[in-house]
From TrEMBL:
InterPro entries per record: AAA+_ATPase, ABC_transporter-like_ATP-bd, BCAA_Transport_ATP-bd_LivF, P-loop_NTPase
Name of the featured protein: Branched-chain amino acid transport system ATP-binding protein
Membrane-spanning ranges: none
Record's keyword terms, sorted: Amino-acid transport, ATP-binding, Nucleotide-binding, Transport
Any single GO BP term: L-amino acid transport
Taxonomic placement: Bacteria, Pseudomonadati, Pseudomonadota, Alphaproteobacteria, Rhodobacterales
Superkingdom of origin: Bacteria
Pfam families according to UniProt: ABC_tran (PF00005)
Family: Belongs to the ABC transporter superfamily.
ABC transporter domain span: 7-245
Any one Gene Ontology molecular-function term assigned to this protein's record: ATP binding
Length: 246
């Protein structure tokens, strides 16, 4: 059958501080049940795109000045992040953002503020099934866990809201290759077994295109290439400039 579109970003422009034009008309779609990669180098506009979707630009003095953002047919550009979570969309910010002084489990529980007690209990079990490391570390203070465990904790915390779509910003950042592999494998399992859809901003093109179904490549605030991940992996320009195979 036809794939259902969850998220539709149409030709958005983002300006910081009223003058700095950073996104120059970005369009992308996130299909239900897919993993979509948003690729590009440092400063290409990946984080800005995710923040535009979750309405997190205000704190950065940024604003969407053109275009539209639609989730399940509704305009969502004016919803605050908490309302978006209730609609099923949650962002995991770059840099992990766990509460360092709380335990791993307390961190996970902070993600369940929209859920009932029974749902929270069920959510914890689900998170621990996918992240056995978090279960082992559940009573540890998050600030003393490894970078990989903190990234897992941030994803686990988002999962506690039972999102339909997760916007994941640079999950590989600062992690050893083996851990990056482990985290992307868990993402794939969540996608296949729980039906969670992902939009993943990544500089690590290689790993992202191995796990994603489709991808978009941003350069200086514009989408310069898009398509199924398997096609992008075989594209000569992608090979040369993004996969280091030139
Ligand atoms: P990175 O992987 O480094 O986060 P990115 O692709 O996510 O890169 P963005 O963080 O979206 O890129 O940044 C895009 C551009 O916007 C960069 O040139 C950056 O300097 C600029 N920018 C980001 N935040 C602000 C801000 N608050 N004020 C002004 N310019 C900003």
């Amino acid at each position: 059958g036809k794939t259902e579109t969850l998220l539709e970003v149409n030709n958005i422009e983002v300006i910081y501080n009223h003058v700095i034009l950073v996104l120059k008309g970005v369009s992308l779609t996130v299909p239900k049940g897919g993993i979509t990669a948003l690729l590009g180098g440092n400063g290409a506009g990946k984080t800005t795109t995710l923040k535009a979707i979750s309405n997190l630009l205000q704190a950065e003095r940024g604003e969407v000045t053109k275009g539209s953002i639609i989730y399940r047919g509704d305009h969502v550009a004016d919803l605050n992040p908490a309302d978006l979570v209730r609609r099923g969309v949650i962002q995991v910010m770059e840099g992990r953002h766990c509460f360092e002084h709380l335990t791993v489990e307390e961190n996970l529980l902070t993600g369940a503020y929209t859920r009932s007690k029974a749902e929270t209990k069920e959510g914890l079990e689900m998170v621990y099934t996918y992240f056995p490391r978090l279960k082992e570390r559940r009573t540890s203070q998050a600030g003393y866990t490894s970078g990989g465990e903190q990234q897992m904790c941030a994803i686990g915390r988002a999962l506690m809201a039972r999102p339909e779509t997760i916007l994941l910003d640079e999950p590989s950042m600062g992690l050893a290759p083996q851990l990056v592999e482990e985290i992307f494998t868990i993402v794939k399992n969540l996608n296949e077994q729980e039906g969670v859809s992902f939009l993943i901003a990544e500089q690590n093109t290689n790993v992202a295109l191995r796990f994603a179904h489709q991808g978009y490549i941003l350069e200086s605030g514009r989408v310069v290439m898009e398509g199924p991940a398997a096609e992008l992996r075989e594209n000569p320009d992608v090979k040369e400039f993004y996969l280091g195979m030139g």
